TrEMBL record:
It is found in: Membrane. Its main location: membrane. InterPro entries: AA/rel_permease1 (IPR002293), CAT_C (IPR029485). One of its GO terms (cellular component) is plasma membrane. PANTHER family: CATIONIC AMINO ACID TRANSPORTER 8, VACUOLAR, INNER MEMBRANE TRANSPORTER YGJI-RELATED. Keywords: Amino-acid transport, Membrane, Transmembrane, Transmembrane helix, Transport. Belongs to the amino acid-polyamine-organocation (APC) superfamily. Cationic amino acid transporter (CAT) (TC 2.A.3.3) family. Residues 511-560 form the Cationic amino acid transporter C-terminal domain. GO terms for molecular function: amino acid transmembrane transporter activity. This is Cationic amino acid transporter C-terminal domain-containing protein. The chain crosses the membrane at residues 78-96, 108-129, 149-170, 226-248, 255-277, 297-320, 422-444, 456-476, 482-503, 510-532, 538-562. It comes from Vigna mungo.
Length: 588
């Protein structure tokens, strides 16, 4: 495959030739593609055994974007981007439902448990993002430690969930705004007779919201960051007001009984409210645009998630203090609670805060989705056309257009009921894989780990993951009761203890997760436990979507990545690495 003679400086950003989408040798013509298909098995074996490296992700792949993303974010920006991404409408929606039907006043413990699990995952993300500050987030990190195949499955699922989530947020924004204007959530929607139920209400307002927020996100990272933290500061004042009023009007009698549904109710609610914490992983994709990753990412990501956990627990406590859990309105908990204590006007503050949360979640989500897509395209798992960074904005415009159009089409036709049924285990699955990848990173090195040492690491990992999965299955099925849970916990403890006795092969470059392997192992256990608390439908969606991704991988991605990996065999990467170094890839 001959390189193009044109350089980034004299090539237009807007170009649409076949070579821009499929430059690999396997896709030159029908004959070459048939030859590639005939060679699928050895190519698949090569891809399954292949691992990327820190330097390849950090120095070589960004060259495919032709221009650098602007390094303009500090710990202040990352903190508010995380806050804006995570603190959306979820806290206002699911808190009332779960307190009313599953946890009672113990909803506070549900938020604490979910927050602890999210914080463990944030720690794993932070270590990787500091060591490898690139736009790919979990895709790049998993590609380095667990290989192309698992990284592709993980990235495909999280992108699908992000697109569906963005469409759902757009529809929710439309419903919320319509309810404020006309007390009719379907006021701005257009019914199309003859369409299948669930797809017969077109929502042009949701599409408009998605186009506007994505347009802002693509205009510049710094602009989006400033808008996010300014609006989030205002929302923080509203949240502080909600908490203070809740405690002022709270009654201790409303907290009794504290856990009316027992321990089961607390953890079942924890699995649901966990989604209120989702979104921080999108911030990890912005590591490439961070000025000083070694300082800014730990403060911005871990600090913000710790603060958000405290805020969520205080908000939940203020609600169950104001109103007895049996009287909480499951659909509009905070708004109705203020009406019940004689402060009807305050419900508008709650509505404004919820709309703000959905808007900033869409803004940060748009940025994260585009950067995931960019790094995947850099590896040629999808066409490299989507890896290009615009020279003026310093943002991945093509990738943003792809995710915007996809989520807009879904939002236009699909109802909230349809979108809510697509809730997935993808995020928890990827968080679990990230914890496994961190353990692999600390205890395995391709250059120095022998076969016997590798076998011991694999055995420990198998015991940790297996015991956690069995414990989650027992909890979900209620088989064996506390005896089964205790045995699973003991086996998990022995597996983690065994790994702690193995020699570490690698230390973090700058910032690392403390108490390894205990905290990453606990992250594996908590994520699998929360996965086990989800319904069967989520698992079927995950299986079906993953099967579709397998087909794409076998027929397209495996051949594209194989060609890219082997087209320069016999050559060194010195030139590419030097080019990347000249463009200041890393500033630690």
């Amino acid at each position: 495959m001959e390189p193009s003679s044109a350089t980034p400086e004299n090539r237009s950003y807007w170009r649409w030739s076949k070579r821009d989408f499929f430059p690999e040798k396997s896709f030159e013509n029908g004959k070459s593609y048939c030859a590639a298909l005939a060679d699928t098995c050895p190519r698949l074996k090569d891809r399954l055994l292949n691992r990327s490296s820190d330097s390849h992700e950090l120095l070589v792949l960004p060259l495919a974007s032709e221009h650098r993303m602007n390094r303009c974010l500090t710990w202040w920006d990352l903190s508010w981007l995380a806050f804006g991404s995570v603190v959306g409408s979820g806290i206002f929606v699911v808190t009332g439902q779960e307190a009313r039907f599953h946890a009672g006043p113990a909803i506070v413990l549900s938020y604490a448990a979910s927050g602890f699990s999210a914080l463990l995952s944030a720690l794993c993300y932070t270590e990787f993002a500091v060591d490898v500050p690139v736009a790919g987030g979990s895709f790049s990190f998993l590609r380095i430690e667990l290989g192309d195949f698992l990284a592709f499955v993980a990235a495909g699922n999280i992108l699908l969930e992000a697109l569906v989530g963005a469409a759902g947020l757009g529809r929710s924004w439309s419903s919320y705004f319509a309810s404020m204007v006309k007390s009719d959530p379907e006021f701005f929607r257009i019914r199309i007779p003859g369409f299948k139920p669930g797809f017969d209400l077109l929502d042009p307002l949701a599409v408009a919201v998605l186009l506007i927020t994505n347009g802002i996100a693509v205009s510049g990272t710094r602009k989006t960051s400033i808008l996010t933290w300014m609006s989030s500061l205002i929302a923080t004042l509203v949240i502080a007001f909600i908490i203070i009023i809740g405690f002022v009007h709270g009654k201790a009698s409303n907290l009794s009984p504290f856990a009316p549904f027992g321990v089961d109710g607390v953890f079942n609610a924890a699995a649901v409210v966990y989604w209120s914490y989702s979104g921080f992983d999108m911030v990890a994709t912005m590591a490439e645009e961070t000025k000083k990753p070694s300082r800014d990412i730990p403060i911005g990501l871990v600090g913000s998630m710790s603060l958000i956990t405290v805020i969520y627990c205080l908000m939940a406590l203020s609600l169950v203090s104001m109103v007895n859990y049996t009287e909480i309105d499951a659909d509009a908990a905070y708004s109705v609670a203020f009406v019940q204590i004689g402060m009807s006007w305050a419900k508008y503050l709650v509505s404004i805060c919820a709309l703000k949360g959905m808007t900033t979640s869409l803004l940060v989500g748009s940025m994260g989705q585009a950067r995931y897509t960019t790094q995947i395209a850099r590896s040629h798992m999808i066409p490299p056309f989507f890896a290009l960074v615009h020279p003026k904005t310093g943002t991945p415009v093509n990738a943003t257009l792809l995710t915007t159009l996809s989520s807009s089409v879904i939002a236009l036709f699909s109802s909230l009921d349809v979108l809510s049924s697509v809730f997935s285990i993808s995020t928890l699955f990827i968080f679990m894989l990230m914890a496994v990848a961190l353990l692999v990173r600390r205890y395995y090195s391709r250059e120095s780990t022998g076969k016997s040492e590798l076998a011991r690491v694999l055995i420990c990992l198998f015991v940790i993951v297996g015991s956690s999965a069995v414990g989650a299955a027992l909890w979900h099925s209620r088989i064996l009761g506390w005896i089964g849970y205790t045995v699973s916990a003991c086996v998990w403890f022995l597996g983690t203890l065994g790994m702690s006795l193995l020699p570490k092969q690698r230390a973090p470059k700058v910032w690392g997760v403390p108490l390894v392997p205990w905290l990453p192992s606990l992250s594996v256990a908590t994520n699998l436990f929360l996965m086990g608390s989800l319904g069967t439908e989520a698992f079927w969606r995950f299986i079906i979507c993953t099967a579709v991704m397998f087909l794409y991988y076998f027929f397209v991605a495996v051949h594209a990545t194989y060609d890219v990996e082997h087209q320069n065999e016999g050559k060194t990467n010195d030139e590419g690495v030097q080019d990347a170094t000249d463009q200041e890839v890393v500033v630690l």
